[in-house]
Amino acid sequence: MANIRSAKKRIRQTARNTDVNRARTSRIRTFVKKVETAISTGDKKAASDALRAAQPEIHRGVTKGVLKKQTASRKLSRLNARIKAMA
User: Where are the domains of the chain?
Assistant: First the structure.
């Protein structure tokens, strides 16, 4: 356990940031899962609507440092390709 005051503060900050980042990651996963569910049901319109809703959430993950830029780009690209292949 930390004894120095600044180290104790860093522990508190890290715990708080971890909770926030976990919530953001979970939110992104939920949005992606909604898109995948819509794709598996075969409803192209619902899938594209779900992707449109997931896109800003994924990009927000990049802005907040939860996802890397290329990871977000890859996820969106693959989801979009799967939706286009439904036709």
Answer: 25-84
